[in-house]
Amino acid sequence: MKLSNDTREVLKNYSTINANLLVTSGNQIATMSQMKNIVSTATVSDTFDTDFAIYDLNEFLAALSLFTNPVLDFSENFVMITEEGKTGNSLKYFYSDPSVVTTPSSEITMPKTEVNFSLDSSDLSKVQRAASVIGSPDLVLEKNGVGSYLTVKDKKNDTANNYSLDVDVEGQGDYNFYFKVENLKLMPLTYDVEVSSKNISHFKSQTSNAVEYW
What we know:
By secondary structure, this protein is of the alpha+beta class. The protein is 16% helix and 41% strand. The protein has helices spanning 5-17, 57-64, 121-134, and strands at 21-23, 26-32, 39-48, 52-54, 70-74, 78-83, 86-94, 115-119, 138-143, 148-153, 163-166, 169-170, 175-180, 191-196, 200-205, 211-213. The longest helix has 14 residues, at 121-134. The protein is elongated and about 65 Å long. The two termini are 30 Å apart.
């Protein structure tokens, strides 16, 4: 099989969440951070016929990059990667033991959510870039009676630089929901976002190949 560009982009994103990955048969991929505070699932256009585990996802992606048009043949213990039309150019990549791979063990059920909003890809990019530029570790979704904003800041330092943009939020009353910027390892897509006071949020992409993060 050949991996679509969409699937490869998902794998690249997942490599920033967890270095290892368990892929099960079908067209859904899931990952969970080592700290178990980030979970994501993605429905991709490729369908895998076998289960396999990868211990170092960045290494696997680097192996794919050795080929211009890689073709993958999945066996029981390894995947053989060859150049399309040149079977003599090949790389045998062995799977990992699934027992050493961190992976979600159950589906997540969102509790009642207090606020909902849409976050488009351009606004997501703005807050991520702003957090990097001014060195802000926190992102807060806040409503102060006047409007609703996404603000990158350092919540432990009142005199630190901050950046805000307004968002259209469905929800009652004033609130402050804090996120760690380092946990927002999202693909550059537009998302429907649900936030719960139970310390969990849900980002679901509006694309046909659904990518979700909790």
